Amino acid sequence: MSSFFARLGHAQFNSKLGRSILGCFYRSGQVYTVPFGSLRGAKLRYCSEINFHAMLGLWELASLRFLSRALVKSGLVPRDAVVCDVGANIGTYSLWLSRQCVPQGKVYAFEIAPVTLERLRDNLLLNNIKNVEVVPAACADRVGPLDFFIGRHHHSNSLSAEWSGGGQCQPQKLVVDGVTLDDFFYGGKTRPAPAFIKMDIEGGGVFALKGCRLVCDKARPVFLIESHTPAEDSAIRTIITDHNYKAFRIETHTWITRPDEIYPHPDGVWGNVFLCPAEKCGTLEPLIGRAG
After folding, report:
1. What is the end-to-end Cα distance of the chain in Å, rounded?
2. What does the alpha-carbon distance between residue 24 and residue 15 come to, in Å, rounded to a whole number?
């Protein structure tokens, strides 16, 4: 049992025993306070589709700890900055960004899946969050109606039918509003430019990254992007090479030295990737090491 709690503290448990123990405590529809991690003290409403890592505060733990250093401790993102949570899901990153990164700033939380959108708004309301604006749209490479696919789990909803279905089911297709980050910030309604963009959209980065090239050139934000497919690796590689970014992979705690390559090259672009404009890397290097 002691080893279970040790693994629990490092977000490593996946055993049936662990899930059974936690399943005796959590009840669908009830609100619980997150006991651990970067979201400790936040409130989340539980349902059976939400994994226990999220309820315990252990979901995305490594990434949030990294961002605490890279964004907050470094001062790279001011506390009154504008940031984006693209693929906000139930709000894990939006809550963290709102409370710990930009408490005097603003978070734009992009989410389009209907049920997930409802849960996101509910979790923001539970925590009395005032500086997050939910944007019910899918970030893509064009503005207007788009096909969006609902998978068997809220983490599989995607602009990609292949990814959403996962070869195991026929995903439900919806027609949703699409937006580009370039148009959102520099289109008809001009907004203050983002200092940071988190993007985790289940393969949809292939489209969304094409729609934020102007943002990359003018605003020079830092990014956290979770890549899911070789095509998404390639889209990230294009941002790095075309817009003069450096890339750091969180899983290996190393700067990516071969941005011209993708998976399976060990030093190429894949995984959970932090992108920093080359001219800003000096701010980060004392905290995470020298860029190649």
Report:
1. 43
2. 15
For the chain, the domains span: 59-288
| Residue 139, φ and ψ in degrees, nearest 5 | -75, 130
> DSSP label at 122?
H
Q: Determine which of 50-59, 138-147, 203-212 has the lowest per-residue pLDDT on average.
A: 50-59
Determine the Cα–Cα distance for residues 65 and 258; give it in Å rounded to an integer. Answer: 25
Strands 82-86 and 106-110, by their bridges, are parallel
Q: What's the token pair of residue 200?
A: 């985790």
103 upstream amide cis, omega within 30 of 0: no
DSSP state of 269: B
211/215 Cα distance (integer angstroms): 9
What is the helix (H) or strand (E) element at residue 183, kind and residue range? helix 181-186
Q: Please check whether residue 269 is in contact with residue 259, taking contact to mean a CB–CB distance below 8 angstroms.
A: yes
pTM flag (> 0.70): yes
Handedness of CA 51, 57, 62, 68 (dihedral sign): positive
Give dist(CA 178, CA 208) in Å, integer. Answer: 10
Q: What is the pLDDT of residues 77-88, one digit of tens each?
A: 999 999 999 999
Instruction: Domain 59-288: state its class.
Output: alpha beta
